[in-house]
Amino acid sequence: MKRFSVLLSLLVVLSIFLTACSGGKEKDGKASSTNETAGSTNEKATITVAAWNAAADALTEQIAGFNQKYPNIKVEILRADTGYTKVTPALAAGTGAPDVIQTQARDFQAFLQKFPDQFVDITDKTQKYKNDFVESSWKSVTKDNKVYALPWDLGPTALYYRIDLFEKAGIDVKSIQTWDEYIEAGKKLKEAIPGTAMTLYTDDFNLYEIFLNQMGGSYVKDGKINVNSPESKKALLLQKKMKDEGIAINVHDGNGRIPALTNDKVASVILPVWYAGTLSHSVEKQAGKWGIVPIPAFEKGGNTQANLGGSILAVSKQSKNADAAFKFIEYVLTTDEGQKIMLQYGLFPSYTPFYKSEVFNTEDKYFGMELYPFFAKLTTTIKGMEYGPIMLDATKPLKDMIDGVLTGNDVDKTMETTAESISKSTKLDVNK
């Protein structure tokens, strides 16, 4: 009996030893890997994440929650810029790149073209999320049916309007179904309230891109430059008509909008969801005076949805801790905890399961409505925009094109000149 007890003890010790060596069992009964990569809860790793402005602030705030789940992964935020000056030299050199890189959604295809083999193929990791993001958001992160980044935020666009100014001018916002009707309402407002314009425009191409996307147009089509398309022409001519009819005033930059709004110089703005936060923080005294409706269509019954903006997060192939890097992306973009913080910084999620959360469905006191559910309904018919690999080279030519048309240059000739200019710098042919 004594010999049996000794033998039994030895067997117990051996069993414990073998269990420890094998890594044990997970709660679901599956054996955990004995080759945990850096970035697991068992291995220490440090990752660097490059992002800018509010996005960088949001990611910084995410670290505490992420470390509760992954205490051994240290996250450092590198404050970059929208010109990518801290990222592109390292990608070009093949060394020194951050582990995680933010780009604007419209720029990422250009990154994939300019820096081939510099981003990790995460197709397998993202398959389970295929139906969890707004469908159009996958277009910018996919190339040759492979996924190289996760969509982050997007910018469903709406018409913000001053309820009191519209009432004073005798304008029923519900009667504005098309852009032509919007322009006519703008004329009425201008007559009723001298010194107040219907809307504004800046020297960037926000309005152009909104109109282009609304019609299903693209910068690139079938691998060729497409800025000379019928949709592009309609977008340019609508912008010009707004100016020529005197319903839109020029503002030279985004900062100029606030004084115009504060002084009642503008009765409405055509911008994405993120502008709601700007209004509530920059013109606080106008709380309750702003309403929001879908943008008008180009024709009766036409599409009233468009996207402007949005970013992505990608893992650099230079990363020595790619698994840890993806875990961070996964946490900030596919969990309620991560998306709650994003929403606090005005970053509207393309991750749709979060739309069911309590915080997403909270009433906004400034506008007196459930703000985010309203914008969520404006994501269902957004057209996928084909940016192609041109946007890092096309920004200035596009701005010049818009400015040229607004100042009276022939629209067809201006589009052709712009297309040829972008073609020279990108080596892509032009659609004829």
Automatic annotation (TrEMBL):
Keyword Signal among UniProt keywords: yes
Keyword field: Signal
Pfam families: SBP_bac_1
Annotated signal sequence range: 1-20
CDD domains named among the record's database cross-references: PBP2_TMBP_like (cd13585)
SUPFAM superfamilies: Periplasmic binding protein-like II
InterPro entries: Bact_solute-bd_prot1 (IPR050490), SBP (IPR006059)
Superkingdom field: Bacteria
Name of protein: Sugar ABC transporter substrate-binding protein
Organism: Cohnella pontilimi
Lineage of producing organism: Bacteria, Bacillati, Bacillota, Bacilli, Bacillales
